[in-house]
């Protein structure tokens, strides 16, 4: 089974996990307090952060986070001999069927864009090669753009005359 680090995981915190989450929220609050001048009440910011995380629980008391965020918050606690931060050391990966479909759609769109650009470049290179007689050479892209703009200007001058 493949797991994407952007997928969500469900877990239930132990008392040790709650303490780690409070510690993480305190660290976030301290960073926010040093970066902002208008908000220096670290205790209030930490309480807001903690409430945000604890408010993100389901009816079974399980929290939900992306896997990468879970590992950044609780990963250092997973050391042999430490108490586990989650009940039964269990994470439930939330299936995200839409993630794979969205990635496939994006890949198809990027390929279509690349193909369109490739065909336009090939037409421009063919015209440059025919005009210069350098049939075995591909021009530098910047030089090709300058040449194409010169051709356009020449065409515009002929049309005005």
Task: Outline the fold blueprint.
Blueprint: E1 8-11, H1 15-35, H2 42-54, E2 63-66, H3 67-74, E3 92-93, H4 97-132, H5 141-160
Structure description:
The longest helix is centred in the C-terminal third of the chain and has 36 residues, at 97-132. The N and C termini lie far apart (69 Å). This protein has a 3-stranded antiparallel beta sheet. The chain is mainly alpha-helical. Helices cover 61% and strands 6% of the residues. The chain is elongated and about 80 Å long. Helix 1 (15-35) packs across helix 2 (42-54). The model has no long low-confidence stretch (mean pLDDT 85). It has helices at residues 15-35, 42-54, 67-74, 97-132, 141-160; strands at 8-11, 63-66, 92-93.
**How much of the sequence is in beta strands?**
5-15%
Average pLDDT level: 85
Coarse structural class: mainly alpha
Count up the helices.
5
Task: Sum up the overall morphology in one term.
Answer: elongated
